[in-house]
Specification:
alpha+beta; Immunoglobulin-like; 5-stranded mixed β-sheet
Length: 231
């Protein structure tokens, strides 16, 4: 009768050990780590970058899979992404939803225990319309070097896009300035017109006195001829 409790205790001890060993790879560690996304400002039809980073990795980092999503469509699109050179195994960015969502995945990151502000990826975004959209972490799995999973908090970023209409207003002002430019040309063209007119009037005045002298001389000659006939 004394063997049954001993066997029961041994079985329970073995089961607990198996649970500990089997659960080592799925244990969750939350050491105040955060997945953060930076902000970006870009003109419409231009491209800028934002970064995905892990604030701290107390037990190191062996890999991760993170999905980023733009909360508002029609503002920006995700074009592509790149990983740090120290990451040995990476997966091409999986862009979906018309550029509104991207999944990033990397393994064997060579991030030592205690590392802080670890850049996980750089994402290129292009402005497609005026406005601002949040960039949120919608799914994530982060693994430490010891096989445990890290459960970081999520800190979203944003993309602000300047619309083309603002630039168009500046262009319109430039056009108005150009339309005013011909005014000096008109003033300049009117000056030469006045000069020929002045020359013509001068010429007319010079011709007037010459013609009068001829008429007067002819009249004197006529009077002289009549006088001679009378004599």
């Amino acid at each position: 009768m004394t063997r049954t409790p001993t066997r029961t205790v041994a079985a329970l001890t073995l089961l607990a050990g198996l649970l500990l060993v089997g659960g080592a790879g799925t244990a969750t560690a939350d050491d105040g780590a955060q997945l953060t996304v930076t902000n970006a400002t870009v003109d419409q039809n231009e491209t800028s970058t934002l970064q995905l980073a892990l604030s701290r990795a107390p037990a190191g980092l062996s890999g991760y899979e993170v999905t980023l999503t733009l909360s508002d469509s029609g503002v920006a699109e995700i074009r592509d992404a790149s990983y740090p050179d120290s990451f040995q195994l990476t997966t091409d960015a999986d862009i979906a939803g018309g550029g509104q969502r991207v999944t990033l995945e990397a393994a064997i990151t060579d991030t030592p225990p205690g590392a802080t502000d670890v850049t996980l990826a750089t994402v290129n975004v292009t402005g497609t319309g005026g406005g601002t959209t949040a960039v949120r972490v919608t799914d994530a799995q982060v693994d430490a070097d010891n096989g445990s999973q890290v459960a970081p908090a999520y800190s979203p970023g944003s993309v602000a896009v300047e619309p083309l209409s603002n630039n168009g207003a500046d262009t319109g002002n430039g056009d108005e300035t150009d339309s005013d430019a011909p005014e000096p040309e008109d003033a300049a063209s009117s000056d030469p017109a006045d000069d020929p007119g002045g020359d013509e009037s001068t010429t007319t005045e010079a011709a007037g006195p010459g013609f009068g002298v001829v008429v007067a001389f002819a009249a004197l000659l006529t009077v002289a001829l009549l006088a001679r006939r009378r004599h």
